Amino acid sequence: MRPARVIRPPLLLCAALALTAPAARAAVSCTAAASSVAFGTYTPLQTSALDANGSITISCTGAVFDTATVSLSPGASGTYTNRTLTSGASILNYNLYTSGAYSTVWGNGSGSSSTVQTLIWFFAPTATLTVYGAVASGQDPAPGTYTDTIMVTVSY
To answer: Is the distance from CB of 56 to CB of 152 less than 8 angstroms?
Structure first.
């Protein structure tokens, strides 16, 4: 019988952030911040996915009524089908989702991924979005600290 391995895979959600604004809306100014999705300890013997949440907060000034569209990059894997946390050559498959139902992958709208939109307006100039993450069960990677870097893009 093999001993159980303990994996601690934190996810760095926002290493870089891009904000874009059309010239016609130059009076609107937005900032964004993201918290990491830290999965904690992954055990290969667990029978269900390891879930964790992070957040993205968008704060704007000068907005009377505007919609912000938030997209996420695929990370190191280059695909939304299975994002990968890496530790050296070892990987753990995971993904990021738009809701706690874990059915819609949060991406840039390509393939089977979706973006998330939120309303920014004068009376509610700040919006906080929850990022839902899940590491698939049944994986048996080498012990280590696993990470991925996701680019968050906010368009308004």
So the answer is: yes
Q: What is the arrangement of strands in the sheet containing 50-61, beginning at the earlier edge strand?
A: 29-35, 50-61, 126-135, 90-97, 83-87
Rounded distance between C-alpha atoms, residue 14 and residue 72, angstroms: 9
Q: What is the pLDDT of residues 78-108, one digit of tens each?
A: 999 999 999 999 999 999 999 999 999 999 9
- Both tokens of residue 32? 């964004």
Rounded to an integer, what distance in angstroms lies between the CA atom of residue 107 and that of residue 35? 17
Helices (H), 57-116: none
pLDDT digits (tens, 9 = 90+) for 53-70: 999 999 888 767 788 899
**Cα–Cα distances in Å, from 81 out to 48, 51, 77, 95, 111?**
19, 17, 9, 8, 9
User: Which strand ranges, in their side-by-side order, compose the sheet holding 149-155?
Assistant: 37-38, 10-20, 149-155, 65-72, 116-121
Beta bridge partners of 31: 59
